[in-house]
């Protein structure tokens, strides 16, 4: 199960039903039950900052009467669970500060289970809920390491790049015309996930602000398209079109600069991040066509 790592006393406020929104700098498509992990780190300034935040708003000021002392707060493990129901850019809750609000419902307190945390979403099952990670599975070793090294060092060819971009450009065209289905949207959001990973690898740098603008536009498109609970094609705003167009162009430039090894490392990392956040991954027969949905 996925866990959300939160510093105390904010984690306590969530599992005890006081705080229905967790503020984050990143969006997520994850929905469903998540574990609440209380981070090990908490300083007195952290605790006092929380008290000041509560005291500043009369709508939640009563919470100060029940807020535990720092020494009574459990840290460094799972303390509860909640249901992640939405990711909002705007929310009426006094707890919302943005830029993204992970909206939580049906909180519950669980028996404390020691566990290490991570900055984003972490997989409870991968750490066995006991703080110990499962051993890595050994990767198969090529019987021809020289051939493998040469292949990984070779730049992607134009046919390979075109095969990767074809479904993405088709998806963007459908988005631009306001007729895209969820699968076409997924193609485009997939390459933005991969483009962001390439940027983080440091092989091609300087485009992350544009890539994140495209990711944000795609997240907002999904929110409108799924407003009824089922995907319904939606028209795009001019700025959204411009941001996504720039993102796709930057991804094409990244591909022209990458070797096979660099591309597949970025692909592996993007897949791992999406799966760890509860998303789904589909690799199509062509190999380079990837659909990622999640996180």
Explain what this protein looks like in three dimensions.
The protein is of the alpha+beta class. It has 2 domains: 2-123, Archaeosine Trna-guanine Transglycosylase, Chain: A, domain 4, CATH 2.30.130; 145-293, no CATH class. The protein is built from 8 helices and 8 strands; from the N terminus they run E-H-E-E-H-E-E-E-H-H-H-H-H-H-E-E. The chain has helices at residues 10-15, 44-55, 145-153, 158-176, 182-201, 208-225, 238-257, 260-276; strands spanning 2-6, 21-24, 32-38, 77-88, 100-114, 121-123, 280-283, 290-293. The strands form 2 sheets. Strands 2-5-4-3-1-6 form a 6-stranded mixed beta sheet. A two-stranded antiparallel ribbon has the order 7-8. Helix 5 packs antiparallel against helix 6 (208-225), helix 5 (182-201) crosses helix 7 (238-257) and helix 5 crosses helix 8 (260-276). The longest helix has 20 residues, at 182-201. It is elongated, with a radius of gyration of 21 Å. Residues 123-142 and 285-291 have low confidence and may be disordered.
């Amino acid at each position: 199960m996925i866990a959300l790592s939160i510093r105390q006393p904010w984690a306590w406020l969530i599992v005890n039903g006081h705080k229905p929104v967790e503020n984050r700098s990143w969006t997520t498509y994850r929905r469903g039950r998540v574990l609440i992990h209380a981070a090990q780190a908490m300083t007195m300034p952290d605790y006092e900052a929380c008290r000041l935040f509560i005291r500043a708003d009369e709508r939640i000021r009563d919470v100060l009467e029940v807020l535990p002392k720092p020494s009574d707060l459990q840290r460094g493990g799972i303390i509860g669970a909640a249901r992640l129901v939405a990711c909002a850019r705007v929310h009426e809750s006094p707890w919302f500060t943005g830029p993204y609000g992970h909206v939580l419902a049906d909180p519950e307190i669980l028996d404390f289970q020691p566990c290490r945390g991570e900055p984003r979403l972490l997989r409870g099952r991968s750490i066995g809920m006991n703080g110990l990670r499962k051993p890595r599975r050994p990767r198969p070793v090529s019987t021809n390491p020289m051939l493998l090294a040469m292949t990984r060092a070779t730049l992607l060819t134009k046919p390979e790049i075109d095969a990767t971009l074809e479904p993405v450009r088709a998806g963007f065209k459908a988005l631009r015309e306001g007729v895209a289905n969820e699968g076409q949207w997924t193609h485009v959001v997939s390459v933005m996930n991969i483009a962001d990973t390439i940027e983080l690898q440091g092989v091609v740098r300087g485009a992350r602000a544009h890539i994140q603008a495209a990711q944000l536009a795609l997240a907002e498109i999904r929110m409108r398209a799924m407003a009824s609970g089922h995907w319904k094609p939606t028209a795009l705003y001019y700025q959204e079109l411009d941001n996504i167009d720039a993102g796709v162009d930057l991804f094409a430039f990244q591909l022209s600069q990458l070797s096979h090894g660099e591309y597949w490392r970025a692909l592996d990392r993007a897949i791992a991040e999406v799966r760890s956040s509860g998303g789904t991954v589909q690799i199509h027969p062509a190999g380079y066509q990837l659909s990622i949905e999640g996180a």
